[in-house]
Amino acid sequence: MKKTLLAFAGAIIVGVSSSAMAASVVMEGNYVKTAINDRGTLGFGGSTTPGLLYDPTGTKNFGVNDYLTPGTPWEMFAVSSTQSGLRTNNNTGTAQLGAFTINNLSVAGGLQHVIASGSYGGLFNIVHDYSFNATTQRVDISTVITALTDLTALKFLRAIDPDPDVNTFGSFSTVNGRGTGTLAANDWVHSVGTQTGLPLGLYSNSSITHNTGVSSGWSENPDYYLAGNNSGNGDYTIGLAFDIGNLGAGSNVSLNYSYVMGGSLDRVDVPPVDVPEPVSLLLLGVGLAGLAASRKRKQA
């Protein structure tokens, strides 16, 4: 895997710009509205809206069908290593990785861009870079972990419990799956509201070893998702985990992934109102596969 020194990652943590804020920051485009809180996760915090909202029409008519705020809001990330053990931050409850500094770089009506920076126990720094523009139907995330000492067996997890049907229909259940006809199961995990048909997926085509999973027990352990476990349909979490391995002091690793709500990553597609049939999910996979090929060409 490629590990390079990123001077700016440390600079963000040591010297924060004047736009840094301790409170939550709202990000809003035509299709997506969310917030980043001081735990470094999605959502304004607790059951306060916005958690994560999506308008398939692109008219900012977000309504009440929030993926995140009903019930017990649950969007989290975890870092594990031999040196740190398993440490998690969740937008409700656990904050083992401590508070994050929030740096809002968004432009009104344009690119939404927020950086959340934190550090743990003299072992590593971690920076989440969130971004999307007015016309995209996803939240792109780049997570950079910088080792302050040698780290072994380093792993990272991002996971969410999507509940788009609760506020209107009172249902916590979603239809969940890994992969499609064109996307590998280790790259793509998705959920769909059984009543609203609102989709949400996690996607990555990273060259770093990764895998996805669906957890009935709301697992916060990267190993569960790296094993490709799939609990099926229900009030479950979907997650994407990375197996980074060893990271030497002063080195870093960059993990790129996205929360996806639209019909594809690189063009506007309005998802069906009903729960997608296999053909609809296949079309979604075709769009994502096109983006994967595009990204690989850009990286070449």
Walk me through the topology.
Blueprint: H1 7-14, E1 20-21, E2 25-28, E3 32-36, E4 52-54, E5 75-81, E6 85-90, E7 101-104, E8 112-120, E9 124-132, E10 138-147, E11 151-160, H2 166-169, E12 174-178, E13 188-193, E14 199-203, E15 210-215, H3 222-226, E16 237-247, E17 252-260, H4 278-299
Antiparallel strand pairs: 1-7, 2-3, 3-4, 5-6, 5-11, 7-8, 8-9, 9-10, 10-17, 11-16, 12-13, 13-14, 14-17, 15-16
Based on the model shown, name its key terms:
nine-stranded antiparallel beta sheet, globular, Beta-galactosidase, Chain A, domain 5, five-stranded antiparallel beta sheet, 4 helices, mainly beta, 13% helix, 17 strands, 300 residues
Notes on the protein architecture:
The strands form three sheets. The protein has a nine-stranded antiparallel β-sheet with strand order 1-7-8-9-10-17-14-13-12, covered by helices on one side. A five-stranded antiparallel β-sheet has the order 6-5-11-16-15. Strands 2-3-4 form a three-stranded antiparallel β-sheet, with no helix packed on it. The protein has a single domain, classed as Beta-galactosidase, Chain A, domain 5 (Distorted Sandwich), CATH 2.70.98. The chain is mostly beta strands and 300 residues long. The N terminus and C terminus are likely disordered. The two termini are 15 Å apart. The chain contains four helices and 17 strands. The protein is 13% helix and 37% strand.
